[in-house]
Amino acid sequence: MATIFPSPEWLEKLGEKLNADEQYARIAKKWEGDMACVVEPGGPLKEKLIYYLDLWHGKCRRTAILKDLTEVKPAFILKASYENFARVIKGELDPMQAMMTRKLQVQGSMAYMMRNVPTVLDFVRCCRDVTSEILS
Amino acid sequence: MQPILKINLSTRETSEYRIPDEWERDYLGGASLAARLLYASLTSELDPFSPAAPLLFLVGPLTGTVGPAVGRFVVCGKSPATGLWAESNCGGFWGPELRFAGYDGLWITGKAEKPVYLWVMDGRLEVREGAHLWGLDTYEIQTKIKEELGQHSARVAGIGPAGERGVLFANIMCDHGRAAGRTGLGAVMGAKNLKAIAVEGNGKPPLVDAAAFNVLRSQVNQALKTDTMSHFYHEVGTSGAADYLEYLGSLPKRYYRQGVFKNVDKISGSTMAETILTGTSACHACVIACGRVVRLEDGAKRKGPEYETIAGFGSNLLNDDLPSIVRLGELCDRYGMDVISASNTIGLAYTLFEKGLLTEKDTGGLALNWGDAGVAEQLIHMTARGEGLGEILAWGSRRFGRHFNAEDEAVQVNGLEVAYHDPRAFSGMALVYATSPRGACHNKSDYFTVDMGQADAELGLEFYERHSGAEKAANVARHQDWTGVLDALVMCRFANVPPERIAALINTACGFNFTMNDLLLHGERAWNLKRAINNRMGLTRANDKLPKALMEPFPDGGAAGYVPPIEEMLTAYYAIRGWDPETGRPTKEKLHALGLADVAHDLWKL
Fold first, then answer.
1. What are the pLDDT digits (tens) for B349-379?
2. ipTM entry
3. Interface test with B, best of A101, A106, A117, A120 (most B CBs within 10 A)
4. How buried is residue B11: exposed, middle or buried, by Cβ count under 10 Å (0-12/13-18/19+)?
5. What is the pLDDT of residues B213-239, one digit of tens each?
């Protein structure tokens, strides 16, 4: 079955991937922090989309699609346009490049993030791995 | 632009110099304009310590406005360390204050009979007796001068004992720990018996379209304030990148000779933020505030170290004690010494001691063992005071190595110590270090950021793999050209402003109509002009190289097994630059295309 980004199935598959991937488990073994990916509308996406992932010691404890961020206060929020999220997931845009060229905003503890850049990069690898199609 | 005040310290003559309109258009300001202004006087015969040697302080066209991170100035001349073009820019508040006082630059020649300092206030200059300041450190002179002027809002840039003694990596400091650090211009200032320059003014920087500029700079600052990179610099400072740079193998260890430093977390900006950090500091009108304020056991608040300091006095010496790094950085600041060159030269001393090329007989009984910060502290004192081995350390790494028959162990290019971004982690830095107009500098293109991902499509930059080779030569050249624009503006590297917004700020401030391509051409013109200045002072193709240590692969770590293919990269780079591969000079055709016909004439009759 095709796993299309963005879709509930995609998020579910990502959660499964994070729980099964040995490389991610190794690299992210010290990671403690939930994360929200806020996808701003654009292209085929008509409304803002928020994907929530509770990441803990190399595993994903929970995924959810949120309407807003009033109920949860994730440790990290990644925010970008649909186009830029799609480009990152397609592998057309490096996640560090996206962040350093103003295409991806990161909110949360920079001290924690900078100690764990490899974890974030491997998280993106898992996102790419589960994606078979991008909604266009 | 406002006039430049010319001062001859020998004769006390002064005059105002008006910058020709075409030079303002073609060079903008800052280091680019300085290169044009000083071109004729920077010759191979010029002794940088002679009265004839110029010392030019310049601002940029946006300095003193409330634009994004533009409160900087640059100091230019001939470097006593390299014998080549010297430029070093500095933040704080001094540059804006000079503009408020009615000048866009101070062009200093001559030598005062006795130590003096300058007092520039609202278009007036006073040369004041300064013998009582001689020997004071760079923080003490600020307090003292403000007190005796009765002007506590004055800004003071000056030298410490290192500049007085002619330490070849003496710097010029202002405010709290802001440094024009590299190329030894503090020693040039010292040779002129010029201890400090105090400035104060009540004017405003000229803006051609102030209304449009103010709307734009407000929008730009708002965006900059919320940018992730600004968030990063504000929260963890420049040393916040240490963990990731270590992961990639870029953080130098054991004087560039070790692949892994397990204790990086003990010294990183993240740990600093969670332990000793008590606040931040900012330069004029900056919304980022990357400066660190820390508190140690004595309870005093002081400047916290930047990345180069935690690398230089930390991992470079295998020292994982953060408070000691804070103290060593402060000591260098107070003496007025560049932390990169000081820590690099001390790293060389440790290396030679380990190899047995330097003994306790040379060191006065000191054992230079890796990780020993106490010894590093003693060496800093000895360097600033000219005591024992310190007298030789004061010459910088190239001459220090040469003195002990080990020049090739020194990690330097053309006499300037390599900064703490290893080209074995980021191959682009190999070209940057080899071709920078002031020696192994990481600021004439901080290309490691591009190799990490800051490849801005607006500049036409592509994102190459960090270990790719000659194919990135054009990218490096383009980034150097853009950096030249920032150096003309004297704009901070850490302001992650979209390039087209920077162009718009220049156009509204100066009344130009520059496109991005126009600006990149400005950068290219300045790069080639500085190259030509260096060629005239003796630089050739043979100077474009990397030190031996950087051409040896690490067995482990994030850069394991890799060395940059520097020769292939240089060949590609020369072709892209339009430089003659035999002589290393820009070709006549290239110089003419850049509007540098006079330079072409001079260079090719050599």
1. 999 999 999 999 999 999 999 999 999 999 9
2. 0.95
3. A101
4. exposed
5. 999 999 999 999 999 999 999 999 999
- pLDDT, one tens digit per residue, over A56-65 is 999 999 999 9
Taking an 8 Å cut-off on Cβ atoms, the answer to whether A110 and B236 are in contact is yes
Q: Taking the C-alpha atoms of B35, B490, B235 and A126 in order, what is their torsion angle to the nearest 10 degrees?
A: -70
Tell me the whole-structure pTM to 2 decimals.
0.97
Are A118 and B247 a contacting pair, CB within 8 Å?
Answer: yes
Kindly report the nearest CA distance between residue A131 and chain B, in angstroms: 23
Chain A residues close to B274, C-beta within 8 Å: 111
In terms of residues, how long is chain A? 136
What domains are defined for chain A? 4-130 (3.30.1050.10)
pLDDT in tens, B96-148: 999 999 999 999 999 999 999 999 999 999 999 999 999 999 999 999 999 99
How far apart (Å, rounded) are the C-alpha atoms in residues B347 and B376? 9
Among B226, B228, B271, B496, most A C-beta atoms within 10 A, so best to mutate, is: B228
- Say if B227 is an interface residue toward chain A (CB within 8 Å): yes
Q: Classify strands B14-17 and B105-109 as parallel, antiparallel or unpaired.
A: unpaired
> Domains (ranges, CATH) in chain B?
4-200 (3.60.9.10), 237-401 (1.10.569.10), 424-545+565-604 (1.10.599.10)
Closest CA to B168 of B200, B190, B194: B190
Q: B270 and A112: CB-CB below 8 Å?
A: yes
Interface probe for B, chosen from A114, A116, A122 (most Cβ of B below 10 Å), is A114
Q: Which of A107, A112, A114 sits opposite B244 (nearest CB)?
A: A114
Record: contact B247-A117, CB cut-off 8 A: yes
With contacts defined as CB-CB under 8 Å, which chain A residues touch B227?
A: 102, 105
The CA distance from B423 to B200, in Å, is: 42
H-type alpha helices, B192-268: 210-226, 228-236, 242-248, 264-267
CA distance B275 to chain A (A): 11
Nearest-neighbour CA in chain B from A1: distance (Å): 33
The percent of residues above 70 in pLDDT, for chain B, comes to: 100
Q: φ and ψ at A92, to 5 degrees?
A: -85, -20
- Picking from A34, A88, A98, A83, the residue whose alpha carbon sits closest to that of residue B229 is A98
